[in-house]
Amino acid sequence: MDISSLLSPPEATQPPSPPPVSMQSPRKQTRRHPSGPVKRGLTSSPLSHSAVPPSNIPLHVSSPTHRPTASSPLASPTTGVLRNSTPPHPVEVSRQSSTASMDALADLAAMQNHQPTRSAAPSLRSKDSYESQLTPSTIFPVVQPPSAAANPRASFDIAMAETPKPAARTDFAGTSLSPELQKDANVLAVDLQQNPHSYESHAQLIRLLHQAFVHHVYPPTSPDAHGDPHSFDLLHDLRAAREGMDKIFAIGEDLWAEWIQDESMLAKTIEEKISLMEKCSKAVTEEYGSVKLWIVFGEWLLHTHKLYHQTSEEAAAGLSEEDRELGQDIFSWSVVVEVWQRGAEETRWRMNDSHLVWNRYIDLLIQDLQKTRSDELIREIKFLFDARLQTPHADWDGTFQVFSTFVSAYMDKQYEEIMVATKRKATDAKSKWEARQPMEIALQQAQEAGDRTAEYVALANYVQWERTLAGRKRFSFDLTNALYQRAALRFPSDPQLWEDHILYLIEEGYAHRITESVLPTLGRATRHCPWSGSLWAQYLLSSEREAQSFSQTEDIKHRATNTGLLDVGGVEEVIKVHAAWCTYLRRRAFQVDSTDEDLDVAEMGIRSAIENLQDLATRKFGEGSNPDPMFRLERIYIKFLSESGSWDTARETFRGLIPKQGDSWAFWIQFYMWEMSCWAKFIQREKTEDGNISRKTPVPHYATAVLRQAVKRETLDWPEKVMSAYITHCEDHEDVEELQMAIVEVRKMEKIVARRREAEALQAAAKTEAQATLPPQHAAEAITRTIEANTSQSGKRKRGGEDEPVADSSKKSKIEGNTTVASRKQVKRDRENATILVQNLPEDVTELKLRQFFRDCGRLNSLKIIQQNGTSAVIEFDAREAALFAQTRDGKDFEGQPLHIQLGSGSTIFVSNFPPTADEGYIRELFDRFGQIVDVRFPSLKYNTHRRFCYVQFRLNEQAQAATELDGQQMDKDLKLVAKISNPAAKQERTGPMEEGREVFCKNLHWSASEEDVKILFSRYGNVESVRIPRNVMGKSKGFCYVVFSSEEEATAATALNAHSFMSRELHVEVSSKTGGKRQATTIVSSVDRSMSPSTGVNGAAGSPSAMSTTSPNTEQPSGDRQARTIALMNVPDTVNDSRLRAITEQYGSLVKIVLRPDHQGAVAEYTDAQNAGKASLGLEGYEITPGRNLRVGTVPEMLRQEAEKKTDKIQIGKARKDYPGSTQASLQPSGPIRRPGQQAGRRGGLGQKRGLGFVAPSGKSQQEEATNASSQVGKSNDAFRELLNKK
Prior knowledge:
The chain is α+β, with helices and mostly antiparallel strands. The protein has 47 helices and 25 strands. A hairpin with a 4-residue loop joins strand 21 and strand 22 (1162-1167). The longest helix is centred in the middle third of the chain and has 38 residues, at 736-773.
């Protein structure tokens, strides 16, 4: 039965307000009591029929960050119970149209009228398949508390503008609560009395009372007992707490689910059930797209339908005939189906879980079809399946299988034709799902792990990826919009997320890709984040753009400002709202159809906004404070006055701002530009009225006076800008006398400014030096005082609007090169001095909450939580000053626990001269006895493969100090360990012969020349300390040498040997200079014949004796083709050196050489035997070389196609996430099949012109032979390697 058919014409009228539907009780005027007795213990909740062990009841007394793992017993009926009930025909009840109890049905009809046509909905399920989709947490949903990232403030109802009173009870002594819970409840009640806007206190009190309610209904000590929910002594307090919170906050998906489930056990009468339906409707509208709430709503409605339509004597004994007939009308089968239809439509584009609602909806339609077969219904269900299968979703295959069953049962003759056509149409939907499946998996894994930070990052990356698809084939507005809605449900109090969503909708609207209104989304956004001025400002702008009435737009403004919740966001947020409101009033006042009353309203509204903002600043910062250095509201007022022709009033407004804004160069330039615009309009009007163009244009004296007054202010923040404008203006518009006077005034001011700049720079340098010498605690206090002082000087700011000291505002100081300031060493990243250790943290603390707690101190580079000996965290800031400022929060309360904060300076040691094969495990084992190690950092070898050092960060400074006792310890032969406290500011410059200019490089040296020969040659120019001739593995010279003298002068003199002939070869001699770091490292293990092994020269050139074909008696002769003996290792971290790779690969046989390529995340290993290469391929595939990084084995061209590793150890926000999504690209590469590289035809063996690997084509084969070998090698795989090993 259609709902509208139950209503009288006046009641059926659609209300003007959009959903949510606010349904009033149908008996609010004539209350009737059931005529029959109500059996005691009878409840309208399905919970009374389900036995859920008390051990499954979740605890909800924890903070909003607690994530219960057990399923809640407060749930809807099981699927099986509902499926066994066949929906009967609706019962027609004859009633008078004026019955007052039908008021609520009008609203329900309005909900129906707002629905799209059924054709937009999706598909079907069988009973078994549907039950397989519902996990226990779906049948009995786990109600999760609000997000840990939730800002402890949310919005309010416009109808409840006044601050609600907290729960009436403030003393819970003598209640059914345990003594411990009584104490907690008393604390929360007192806190709410003092601070009614505390989100945390509201949520914790509700969870505490909810837990007590659950234990009352399902006693933990008596699994089979069921208490009467109405006899709970704190039921009134629980309801009052929820209603009070709902008046000012959007309470969130999880708290709504708890509320509905509790009330489902309490609702007995028809009025209570309709009231519960109101709550359900409000919940699914406020938390748009929530699958959890739609399931709770729909399952409760199904249970209620069954309750009123059953005909058993037991049911009849509990309900009066009148109530049963009325319940059958209200909770009819059509209402149930309509609610599930709406849920399926609103959750349609949720790819991950929309099938849970849609399957249930289509199952209800199938029940109708099974009862009464209808061709029309068959076509409708087929249409729904077609739409669903063309919608991307996770359970597409399951939906298709059920569709196949449906077609087979009802359209069997057309089965093949329908299935083929359906698959063809669904190609686009499947491709869209496959493209998004990896991100859905990553998001699901983060949610299952309970990692809120990882979940937020996964969502952000997902959204960013969706946004990049705009205009492409795989783009879908509906999917992107639904993803934003999913993110809002998970992180409802993140204003940045909401704002991104709103701006996305606005952008799509202007691009004409959507036509829907953005106002409903803005309504939800401002309800969840009422402290965000940006969201309220967008709400006002969108209301104006969508041509809402003045009263509606004014209503939005009052909702933003009346409760005081906006004030907690800060003055800047308040200014955004007032600015949007004032610009709206100004534009409205000058529309074509505006009246004088509109002008008066605009003027009074703008002036009122300015006064309100000043009052707020006075309350917050004291008398005379400047809330808006950019005077945005005053500019709007001046613009309004100018447009209305009140030039003098506008000028006086500008002059009235001088006491507060007079030190800002931007203010004077704005004032000057306004005067010039007035002058231009005056000139234009004069020319229009007179009709004669005078040779001499009137001089803009008012504008000149503004600049003259500005130049004379000695406290101006950027006087150079104003002085330049003053001179230019006089040159363009004034006579010679005024120009000369301007030059004189500017010259005077330049001298004053120079003296001021010098004094400020010296003062700043002295303060910096003084803070550097203070103990850490005193330095932190000094920085805090400086920040407070700069904040109080709100009138002095930089021209960019940043709140910085005036001393730093000049970019043109004449003493920029001050030696005191310049002498301080600048470090790229002062990690050691910008780190703090935070102790005594709660056990369940998250990174997101810590970042929010310290975000005002400065930018966070990294954060690591340590769960050992209590919970602590190591936080690195972007600057040392931020760490000192963060230390001032020592002792502050964090979720009920006082924090212990200390600086991390001195907790990191610099370690070098350890064995080349040492890895992180070796370093940790070496230093583990000194204390808890937080991190071990190896440098990247991407740009220099010869780096060998690391940083070891300890938890405490004392532990790091103790670890320095290993400094100087003998590790291996000629290796003494270096272990010192890391201090970037005290970093020493490299010393040695090359850095001191005492080393000479000589090349083109004869192969047979010895060190003694070279020493004799160079001794004529001074004292030769040493001579070094690099040699290959065969012990032969490489043709160059290094000569070290005792002084720089001697080395310079030795360059006279350049072009000198020595042993029949012309020498090339020069002073050694620093060269760039090597980006690859080649380690030659054994010498081989040139024709069988790649050369170490560039592109295979025989640049050294190692590449010559001459063999030595000690040379190990390789067997087999070179390509068969060579493997490429991929996914090699850029912190792994060639020594470690050699140690790993040499386990499988003798090597010819190892070539490390960190610029391609790989390495090349050449063995002396193809069988050894085969064993290495099998053994190294999947080898975990570092934690979380597994090697892959492939061909050299595959390795060279890999890009260099992109990674960062800093916390990324905003656009930076695009380049650094939280994991390196290499770690996500799929594992490929292990195969031996095939030799391609060509002079470089298929390697092209890539430099650095040193491969040359075998010299003893023709191109045809090489091509034959290549074709025989390409097809080899793991089976070929196994066969090769078996032969051995």
